[in-house]
């Protein structure tokens, strides 16, 4: 007898039909996982939770996040994995994905806009010393000396964005439109008529040395893991700020704490962490110069993502080339 959840896997009356081989695995433990299931089902995809898969060998398309080797080993016919988010580092661990299996990204302008807005807030928070104003409010203290009656104007703030992909370009565009002095760093050369884009490891130090607010939006790869190291933090001008909305493993958290406590780095705004959820005993929580958000800088827009995931499923069934395929050789 089919389980109650298996009965939900049938597309509702009137849903568009997507003829395809077997079920589509939905592998997700997010808080909104039922929303993903419902919207993918409404789009006509025959999604099923792992416990409701009838024939693992028939699965050619899987959707999800943080697949395990054990789950992947059950699907010998797998041809493509659709990520539920813009990042694909969860699927790029060495040896995880079998050869010949494509990894599909989500590319969403709305997600980029959300990220750009969060980055703008983080820069302004640091620039205008909003944490100090919040503390003064909590103490019922009317304090106009926090900025010494002379705000640090936008054109005086040198923002450096690490990563110049979709997210990085959106953040750079918004900051530049507001008058900030913006530069970017990428692993490979980029053409930009609007800002200077440093590229390659040989230019990383020069990029960091001209940066008052360092923003990390890099993809996580073997080359970028740990890139915000103790050494890199010493290259920042004294009093600079650090913003990380990429992946927690980009940042040496202990080195950041030491740099802040020494006075070299003035503060940080962090959205991502090496361990998530951030453990309750982490010293980051209570540090007065660190602002924390719980990995919410750019939440995936479910309807847009579902449309892209469904489109690629239809292309797979029709034998057409897949879109937004990640490059395994570079890790994103």
From TrEMBL:
Keywords: Cytoplasm, NAD, NADP, Oxidoreductase. The keyword Cytoplasm applies. One of its GO terms (cellular component) is cytosol. GO terms for molecular function: glyoxylate reductase (NADPH) activity; hydroxypyruvate reductase [NAD(P)H] activity; NAD binding. Residues 121-297 form the D-isomer specific 2-hydroxyacid dehydrogenase NAD-binding domain. It comes from the Eukaryota. The keyword NAD applies. This is D-isomer specific 2-hydroxyacid dehydrogenase NAD-binding domain-containing protein. It comes from Chlamydomonas reinhardtii (Chlamydomonas smithii).
């Amino acid at each position: 007898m089919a389980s109650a959840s298996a009965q939900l896997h049938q597309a509702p009356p009137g849903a568009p039909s997507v003829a395809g081989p077997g079920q589509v695995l939905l592998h997700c433990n997010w808080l909104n996982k039922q929303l993903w299931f419902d919207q993918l089902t409404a789009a006509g995809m025959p999604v099923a939770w792992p416990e409701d898969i009838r024939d693992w060998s028939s699965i050619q398309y899987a959707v999800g996040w943080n697949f395990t080797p054990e789950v992947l080993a059950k699907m010998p016919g797998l041809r493509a994995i659709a990520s539920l988010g813009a990042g694909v580092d969860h699927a790029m661990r060495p040896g995880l994905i079998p050869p010949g299996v494509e990894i599909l990204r989500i590319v969403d302008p709305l997600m980029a806009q959300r990220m750009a807005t969060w980055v703008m807030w983080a820069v302004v928070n640091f620039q205008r010393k909003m944490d100090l104003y919040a503390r003064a409010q909590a103490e019922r203290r009317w304090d106009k000396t926090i900025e010494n009656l002379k705000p640090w104007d936008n054109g005086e703030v040198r923002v450096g964005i690490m990563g110049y992909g979709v997210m990085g370009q959106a953040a750079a565009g918004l900051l530049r439109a507001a008058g900030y002095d913006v530069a970017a760093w990428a692993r490979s050369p980029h053409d930009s008529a609007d800002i200077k884009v440093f590229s390659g490891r040989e230019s990383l130090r020069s990029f960091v040395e001209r940066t008052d607010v360092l923003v990390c939006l890099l993809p996580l790869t073997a080359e970028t893991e740990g890139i915000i190291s103790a050494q890199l933090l010493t290259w920042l001008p004294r009093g600079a700020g650090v913003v990380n909305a990429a992946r927690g493993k980009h940042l040496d958290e202990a080195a950041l704490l030491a740099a802040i406590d020494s006075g070299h780095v003035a503060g940080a705004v962090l959205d991502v962490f090496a361990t998530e959820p951030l453990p309750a005993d982490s010293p980051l929580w209570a540090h007065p110069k660190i602002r924390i958000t719980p990995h919410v800088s750019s939440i995936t827009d479910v309807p847009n993502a579902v449309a892209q995931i469904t489109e690629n499923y239809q292309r797979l069934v029709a034998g057409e080339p897949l879109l937004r395929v990640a490059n395994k050789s570079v890790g994103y």
